[in-house]
Design goal:
With 332 residues, the chain is an alpha+beta fold. The chain is built from 8 helices and 13 strands. The strands form 3 sheets. The protein has a 5-stranded mixed sheet with strand order 1-2-3-5-4, with helices on one face. Strands 8, 9, 11, 12 and 13 form a 5-stranded antiparallel sheet that branches. α3 crosses α5.
Length: 332
Amino acid sequence: MPVKMRVFIILIFLLPFLLSFQSEGRSYPTYETYLTPKGIEFTSYSSNWDQRKLQELYVELLKNGHGEELTELKAVKIYPDKHQASNTKGSYQALSKTITLYQGDKYVHVEDYRDTLSHEYGHHFAYYYFPSHHFPFSKWSVVRGLEHEAIRWDAFWNYKEEHHANYPQEIFADDYVLLFGSTSEMNSKTFTDHEPFYLRTEHENQNIPNILENKPLIEMIELESGLSVEPSRLIEMPHFTNITDNLVSYQITKKANIAYRLNVHLHDIKNEYGSTVMEFYEITVNDDISELHFNIEQAIEKNDSNYLSFSLDVVDLSTSIGFETEKITVGI
């Protein structure tokens, strides 16, 4: 292979790392530092994050599934204010192997950064084990099933916040959160009916296949990283089966402590923008239930409605992981 061609190929592979290395361009006085036993330097530029809280943040980091790649992480930084170009809570710089957390003056508790820290560590994990995942020809992208999806492969030279969910780098990072990220249990007795669905941990891109039921991809990630996905995390997307006799039926994963919310939208054909929303809740109490039936008679009896649409929200109360099914529309 000619030297020029080899140089070109090397530059193509290095480009994502070079472009992902972004300096803040601003100078902040260091408020506190903490060097972990693994050699990761935690630095705070916010007076809300002292050494004790940096140590707690490190403990939170360790709750994420990790292997040999952890020793390659160099630093975690907390800045007091927003990112210069967006409202993001975090970013990862592949060249310096650094996680940066923003708005430290606003987010003052470790749990405020739980999902963000997991997501950014997901980038670190991805570039360590699957460094070519941001390319459409990578094995990861093929097994993930992205070749037929509306994916953006131009993040490094044409990044736009509006396309964030469709960049493969962000998809992998969110995959990591669901497979290995730190979780938190929800106590349904301390919540109102709707709260778990707004507080859940979910994949930003709800239009691609559910990672938690992609067994070939999970096996590939486990083999490459040496980590194992806990079976308790795995939950399949519910499948709509039927609507009859005022009952909406879904086939579900046999698993206890899962909360479901059927969102029913009632539409008046005379007013296409008019819609009344009704919600129906269920929580599975054991692991032998394979189908749920929601009685929507109250919705059907709305005489001013010509058709209705519905979707099913899901959240695993043991992990806070969840998602929403696609919307189904039927006439009344």
